[in-house]
Amino acid sequence: MAKEIAAWLTDMDGVLVHEGVPVPGATDFIGKLRQAGKPFLVLTNNSIYTPRDLHARLTRLGFDLPEEAIWTSALATARFLSDQRPGGTAYVIGEAGLTTALHAAGYIMTDFDPDYVVLGETRNYSFEAITTAVRLISKGARFICTNPDVTGPSNEGLLPAAGSVAAMITKATGVEPYFVGKPNPMMMRSALNRIGAHSETAAMIGDRMDTDVLCGLEAGLHTILVLTGIATKADVERFPYRPSRVIASVADLIDEV
After folding, report:
1. Are 191 and 149 in the same domain?
2. Which of 17, 49, 111, 145 has the fewest CB atoms within 10 Å around its CB?
3. What is the pTM (predicted TM-score) of this model?
């Protein structure tokens, strides 16, 4: 399979980094990709940080990759909205990663009759902001969420994520959001378009069956599950679909780039 792969997509948390430290072999894997000149992107469903923020974080951890090699659900959401309604308006619940991406896409942030309510990750969900979102959606604003993850990792344990807050807003409004991030294959297709790659000759590396592997599978990519994050070998058997390969970590791929 490795000889067929011309481009690589990889999740970040659980694949390259785990609990704030690099996965053994991950920096070498990224270095080998750069040395080989293979197009690649590091993907994350987390919309809090800008690519510049994540670049700085990964650089501190010893990774050598450019800011342009990072693709977030915030960037994918901004690309989607720009395609759907260029120069639109949005009421945004989120942080710099999301607001910066939307501004760059030409969107105006407003709570006055916006085209969209856009929900992303944030460290401090405000009840007032959620109430505003509920009222705007009830009045007809379209509901977009960067990603469906109901929990996220932290050094202290699990945290509620955007999917959990989206469920609360849906319960109050009866309106389901459109999720842009994984496992929506649109996230993969937008990433492939970013690097000019094709699904038939690309691979997705992830640590979750329900997002990374599912998303890659539905987008037509080779899928590689690593066991350095969420999923275990036992988890694989519980799903009705399988990854192309299951490996211990990205260190196993260094010689295949």
Report:
1. no
2. 111
3. 0.93
